[in-house]
Amino acid sequence: MVTVKDRVRFVETDMMGVVHHANYLRWFEMGRVEYMRQAGVYLLDLMAAGIVFPITDVSCNYRASARFDDCLLIETAMAELSKVKMVFTYRVVREADGVLLATGRTQNAFTDGAGKIVRLPAEYYDRLQQMFTREEPR
Amino acid sequence: MVTVKDRVRFVETDMMGVVHHANYLRWFEMGRVEYMRQAGVYLLDLMAAGIVFPITDVSCNYRASARFDDCLLIETAMAELSKVKMVFTYRVVREADGVLLATGRTQNAFTDGAGKIVRLPAEYYDRLQQMFTREEPR
Amino acid sequence: MVTVKDRVRFVETDMMGVVHHANYLRWFEMGRVEYMRQAGVYLLDLMAAGIVFPITDVSCNYRASARFDDCLLIETAMAELSKVKMVFTYRVVREADGVLLATGRTQNAFTDGAGKIVRLPAEYYDRLQQMFTREEPR
Amino acid sequence: MVTVKDRVRFVETDMMGVVHHANYLRWFEMGRVEYMRQAGVYLLDLMAAGIVFPITDVSCNYRASARFDDCLLIETAMAELSKVKMVFTYRVVREADGVLLATGRTQNAFTDGAGKIVRLPAEYYDRLQQMFTREEPR
Fold first, then answer.
1. Contacts of D32 in chain C (CB under 8 A)
2. How many domains, in total, are found in chain C?
3. Which of A103, B87, C96, D125 would disulfide-bridge B79, Cβ 3.0–4.6 Å?
4. Phi, psi angle pair for B20, to nearest 5°
5. Cβ neighbours of C57 in D, within 8 Å
């Protein structure tokens, strides 16, 4: 599991006085990018190699509202990995009191620039696989 | 079913050259607001009455990428309604060729400003219920 | 002058209960894209020709707050045009009562993909120039 | 001067392959909030006291493009302070090579919830004034 920390920005709130729900997808993305970075897989390298990684599915369950200035912990774990897709799960926790605010799940495919599914080259797949294997089950 | 139309903005794209996946939640919101408007339920009235409507669940399945300047049709239908929650489903279709780009589902709860679940007053519930009843099954 | 209309979305509000100021830059972009479209210059064509058009300067003066569900008129006029840059000015007006909410100004440069300034080819420049010439001074 | 650090997110890029210009306003806001925090002025306290702080003017000059995954330093300094407004200036610098990417300026007014200008109470003004006085001229 990889944890990134972020503080809620004013722009992320809405007129209900809490964080707008779409921002959680931004936090999931931050977590996913950091997970891959820690595995040694850099998105810019993938793109330079002609591989993109569109999201094919996303879901989020919201349990409590994040508020302006809250410090959040975004916990990211890999749930599935193959050469054509990867699935991550997420937990967003308020740091001050440990309250679980949201859980989520995303699936990425690997495609070429034209949207055709490609198989992730071994150099990237192996690094993600090693990271995945080291994960504690959550 | 209520359809709203929107054109993809430049800011909604990302460096993969397509629309960033988080924007679909913004489109779902546009669709949901318009559905409720057509039922005669205005979010500003709800808020003035002390009722807010946080999203508790969202999911989206992405099938093809929206691109800059595409005209999109966002089709919104109600799937469930009770006095404590409402569920909508969505289809995002590219107008030019009718390709289905994404489907989604959201659930809202009705709460007071402190986040406590409340029952939607009859004046709002009845209007939504009538609109829901008139819906053709999709 | 080119006018586009847009309705304020819930996601565009912040916890002050009004539209977050960063959204005006999104509206300016909508206006600018539409102005160029009406001149017969399509951003996708420019990009296919290897020309990008980064913003080099932006300013906005906010006079009154846009609120959720307001219908807005975004009025865009060209203020300067050369082969290396273009300047637009904007007015954002609330449709219901004609109140001027904001004025703004942006400058774009024309560059290649590496960020080097390029001269806009005549086929695009001439169309913008004709549109500019037809403009009434504001 | 107060410096905050942020890393460019994927969602902040656009199809030109660089950060969309509207995101700099989000970074300015982060810098401004942190400056005030270090002065001991918390936006949530201001709002609880019925004071809001709408942006009345913003400008940004873009010199070089931020790219995905860049670590940025957002440097915020106060430029003017009175009981009815505050002006901040910003510099956004890429950490890796010290290149100045953008400079900006914002002005906030202090108002009540209805948009009427109010004078900032001494308890907040004095803290900002002390922080401002300690600033080195830039």
1. none
2. 1
3. B87
4. -70, 140
5. 59-62
CB C109 within 8 A of CB C83: no
Give the count of beta carbons closer than 10 Å to the beta carbon of residue A114. Answer: 8
What is the reported pLDDT for A3? 98
Interface check for B33 against chain C (CB to CB < 8 A): the answer is yes
**Residue B43 belongs to what H/E stretch?**
helix B43-48
Q: What is the pLDDT of residues C54-102, one digit of tens each?
A: 999 999 999 999 999 999 999 999 999 999 999 999 999 999 999 999 9
pLDDT in tens, A17-36: 999 999 999 999 999 999 99
What type of residue is A12? E
Q: Least CB-CB distance to B21: which of A47, A58, A62?
A: A58
Asked if pLDDT for residue D113 goes beyond 70, the answer is: yes
Kindly name the residue from C6, C14, C70, C97 that is annotated as catalytic: C14
When CB atoms are compared, the residue of D26, D29, D68 closest to A44 is: D68
Tokens 């109010």 correspond to D118
Q: What is the pLDDT of residues A103-136, one digit of tens each?
A: 999 999 999 988 899 999 999 999 999 999 988 6
Which tokens in the block code for residue C54? Answer: 């980064």
Strand pairing category for B85-94 and B100-109: antiparallel
pLDDT at position C26 over 70: yes
Q: How close is the nearest chain C Cα to the Cα of B53, in Å?
A: 12
Full DSSP string of A37-93 = HHHT--HHHHHHTT-B--EEEEEEEE-S---TT-EEEEEEEEEEE-SSEEEEEEEEE
Encode pLDDT of D31-82 as tens digits: 999 999 999 999 999 999 999 999 999 999 999 999 999 999 999 999 999 9
Domain ranges, residue A23? 2-134
Q: At what angle do helices D23-39 and D122-134 cross, to 10 degrees?
A: 100
Instruction: Say how far residue C45 (Cα) sits from the centre of its chain.
Output: 18
| Residue in the structure block whose two tokens are 């300026």 | D105
Give yes or no for A18 touching B (CB within 8 A).
yes
Distance CA B85, CA B107 (A): 7
ipTM over the 0.90 cut-off: yes
Task: Kindly calculate the radius of gyration of chain C based on its CA atoms and give it in whole angstroms.
Answer: 16
Of D29, D55, D62, the CB nearest to C55: D62
CATH of the domain at D130: 3.10.129.10
CA separation for the pair C122, A89 (Å, rounded): 51
Strand positions, DSSP E, B16-129: 55-62, 71-81, 85-94, 100-109
Q: Indicate if A14 belongs to the active site.
A: yes
